[in-house]
Design brief:
The chain is α+β, with helices and mostly antiparallel strands and 365 residues long. The protein has twelve helices and five strands. The protein has a five-stranded mixed beta sheet with strand order 2-3-1-4-5, with helices on both faces. The radius of gyration is 37 Å and the shape is elongated. The longest helix has 51 residues.
């Protein structure tokens, strides 16, 4: 309940609780410092910043836990952790604490550095520079006001040393954060390049390079998935083996480049005519395997005949003017995962019957 469901938002909620814990710890220190007759701090002066820190910490947690941070991020275009506004509030509160801690105020400067450092690694370059500049400006303004209001208690020399040390620390933190930002960008670029490489490898592993169709391996995995699904649905599933007629003659007469263009054109033309659920893969050479989900044998044969008639009407003029490509096909039903190889074998036998009967025809297994 305290952290919410797992995910990125839980991490943000955890960070807000850490911030709340820090504010409460600082508030406890201020309260302890204001106790007793020889108290180091004035209770009346430290109470307002103590209350403010508690409210800001609770507000941060409430924003994260309720999910309002994501709505604000969408509205203002900032990141969902709201790192910059939260840190600016932290700088403001820490600077306020500096004004009420008297002789102990030097210790508050370390807290200011921690507040800034806590967020630097989550900020972009420009944001980090703005944050460091605003923190120094706030501190310098408060120090100047203190020296003007009570120059004997707050000496200019001491405040200048405090400001100088804080500036050195913030500059160091900012430079480190900028370097980290570059490293993060480099890692992001590397992850993007790796994702693209993996996508390319996946495509190479599952796609035929020449035609762009799924390859034999991809079709084998799809057959396992589809047969299991159709078994659950008790729906028919048909396969068809398509073989381009006289492809060897095209290669011998026109060359392998022309043969490659025929294969690409054949794949494009057939794929353009397929129904939404149908899938065709290059099975090997000039042979293609067509998967027809939810289709019984006779409708599958009709679908293949429609493809054959459509292909006959589309000459391959880019290969040779007037060149027409036909194919023979064997069509069969697949009865389940255990029947895949047998179904392909039956379709293959039907294909050879179609070739033996004169080609440019389809046979049912």
């Amino acid at each position: 309940m305290l952290l919410g469901p797992p995910g990125q938002q839980r991490w943000r909620i955890t960070q807000s609780l850490i911030g709340l814990g820090g504010y409460l710890a600082l508030g406890l220190l201020l309260w302890l410092g204001s106790q007793g007759e020889a108290a180091l701090l004035d209770r009346a002066r430290v109470l307002p910043p103590m209350l403010a820190m508690g409210l800001v910490g609770l507000l941060g947690y409430g924003l994260m836990r309720s999910g309002l941070n994501r709505r604000l991020a969408l509205r203002c275009g900032c990141e969902p952790s709201l790192t910059l506004p939260q840190t600016l509030l932290g700088v403001l509160l820490t600077t306020w604490v500096y004004t009420v801690t008297g002789q102990a105020r030097g210790a508050v400067l370390a807290l200011l550095a921690v507040v800034v450092m806590f967020s630097m690694f989550a900020l972009q370059r420009r944001q980090a520079l703005v944050l460091a500049g605003v923190a120094l400006l706030m501190l310098a303004t408060v120090m100047r006001a203190m020296t003007l209001a009570d120059p004997f208690r707050y000496r200019v020399e001491v405040e200048a040393v405090h400001l100088g040390v804080t500036a050195l620390v913030l500059i160091g933190v900012t430079l480190l954060s900028l370097r980290m930002a570059r490293l993060r960008q480099r890692l992001r670029d590397q992850r993007t390049a790796l994702a693209r490489a993996l996508e390319k490898l996946s495509e190479i592993a599952t796609r035929d390079e020449l035609t762009g169709l799924p390859n034999r391996r991809a079709m084998g995995e799809l057959l396992l998935t589809e047969t299991a699904r159709h078994a659950r649905l008790k729906a028919p599933l048909s396969l068809a083996l398509l073989d381009i007629d006289h492809f060897k003659q095209i290669n011998d007469r026109l060359g392998h480049a022309a043969g490659d263009e025929v294969l690409r054109g054949f794949a494009r033309r057939i794929e353009a005519e397929l129904r939404g659920a149908d899938v065709m893969a290059r099975w090997g050479g000039e042979e293609f395997l067509l998967l027809l989900p939810g289709t019984a044998a006779e409708p599958a044969l009709q679908a293949v005949e429609r493809l054959r008639e459509s292909l006959r009407q589309q000459p391959f003029d880019q290969v040779e003017p007037g060149l027409r490509i036909t194919f023979s096909a064997g069509v069969g039903i697949c009865l389940g995962q255990g029947d895949i190889d047998s179904a392909i074998e039956r379709a293959d036998r039907a294909l050879y019957r179609a070739k033996a009967a004169g080609r440019d025809r389809s046979e049912l297994a």
